[in-house]
UniProtKB/TrEMBL annotation:
Keywords: Signal
Highest rank taxon of the organism: Bacteria
Domain DUF4136 residues, every copy: 24-174
InterPro entries: DUF4136
Name of the protein described by the UniProt record: DUF4136 domain-containing protein
Signal peptide: 1-24
């Protein structure tokens, strides 16, 4: 039975580390010349449509602005690129069957065996889309998306949002364009 403790600890660590990961993807217009984009502004009509709280919008926009500035962009009243966001969220319910091996029962198998029942876990998984739009053509030139679990704790929200935005923005500029 002692050999099972390390396996259980590995499973718990894997479960908690998977909750922190962000799955990212991006797509872009291959005809766009990304070296021409030096300035940005937020696209208010698009941002207003995002169905999240105004506080979370502020957190997301603050994180995006920090990332854009770190990449050398300048915020401008006459931008070459507009930034918009879109979000989706879904509730995820996981049911874990504790049949056979569990913590609870002191039976003939000791403290490990005989644990019966289900554990239900509910989490919210969100997807953030960041759209970069050519300001003169009003055409989407790059889109990044990140999917991950959302923080419930108010103190952790900005940290988690910054983490998600940072992971998404690592995809910009497109890898094929980064070497030019």
């Amino acid at each position: 039975m002692k050999n099972l403790k390390p396996l259980f600890l590995i499973a718990v660590v894997a479960l908690f580390s998977s909750c922190n990961s962000v799955r990212v993807a991006s797509d872009y217009d291959q005809s766009a010349d990304f070296t021409n984009y030096k300035t940005f502004a937020f696209f208010k009509p698009g941002i207003d449509k995002a169905e999240i709280s105004d506080l979370d919008k502020k957190r997301i926009l603050r994180a995006i602005e920090n990332e854009m500035l770190a990449k050398g962009f300048v915020k401008s009243e006459d931008p070459s690129m507009l930034v918009s966001i879109f979000t989706t969220a879904q509730q995820r319910v996981d049911v874990y069957n504790n049949y056979g091996w569990g913590w609870g029962s002191w039976g003939p198998w000791g403290p490990w065996g005989g644990g019966f029942g289900n554990t239900v876990s509910r989490t919210t998984e969100g997807t953030l889309y960041i759209d970069l739009i050519d300001a003169s053509k009003k055409e989407l030139v790059w889109q990044g998306q990140g999917t991950g679990y959302l923080a419930r704790d108010v103190e952790r929200k900005q940290e988690r949002i910054s983490e998600i935005v940072g992971e998404i923005m690592q995809e910009y500029p497109p890898k094929q364009m980064a070497s030019n």
